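Input chain follows. Return structure tokens only.
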Amino acid sequence: MRILQVIPDPYGLSGGILVHVQNITERLAENHDVTVYATNYVSGYRRYELRNGVKIERFNCIAPNEAYYFSMEMFLRLCKVRFDVVHAHGYHAFPSHFASLAKCDRFIVTPHFHGVGHSTFRNSLIRLLKPFGKRTFEKADRIISVSEYEKSLIIDQFGFDDDKITVIPNGVRFSEFAGLKRQKRDLRTVLYVGYLTDFKGVQYLVEVLPRLDGDVILEIIGKGPLKPYLERRARELKVYDRVKFSQDLTRQELLQKFTDANVFALLSRYEAYSIVVAEALTAGTPCIVAETSALAEWVDNETCYGVHYPIHLDELAGRINQVLSGGGSHHTKKWIGTKILDWDDVTRRLESIYNSSS
């Protein structure tokens, strides 16, 4: 098959959608002719690239506040091309909606849909996108959601029938975790991995640190606009020496961090799935999440524990102490094969949808 994947980002950055697309496209390229149309709002990426069998073409775009990725170049190209399958990703940007203009036998949409924007600016433009979004969803032969939460959100907001939407979770590469062992340390670690912005809730982990025992440290892995505030707040709370910041780790270094942590925490307001929670659980590390959006689906009070939103520090401190003291069974790999799939399995499920005639 000739397959086109359309994404809002440059194909090469980190992030949930990019992790998803890169993993499925490189596997699909082993048996199919796969092209990716991406944007080129970040300098340093070539216009044309062949990466692990995937043909990538990047288009100039306008991306105010790194959002919406409007590309007239991509729009005009999509009006002219034909593929067997066109698969659009990312409801919250224009490229996925432009993708519906391409000629194809099967049009698939994976929206990674949150229902809201992550800032006042982005949230205001969600209303602008809704007419485009409804048309894109109506034209799609199949909508693929990464969680039951996302599926229900699309049904509620757009009124589609249940049978138009298939849930296929994001994946994990199980082979990466083989042989990883937790290193013995004198300190206990609360780990956060992700973009440093307020909607992700990382600030609450800094705020709660004075309420935890002195041998508990917070490891924050990632970059983003909230980092200066987090550093300043840690100093004000006199816990700066217990907060360790890092970024741009190798994949092996990151996997070891997941494995070594005593607890992983994500207190985000909006998530369509959360690959980092899946990876922490695969590494054998219990999690604490805000009981919001798709994160609530992970909460079983055995492997993953919830805290109410808005976050209250006393409740959060209690949850962290509960997990650090060994409360719960922590049989984290119970999710494997159901909510946590290998990327190979995700790709096979997608191929069956691409080949479907209905």
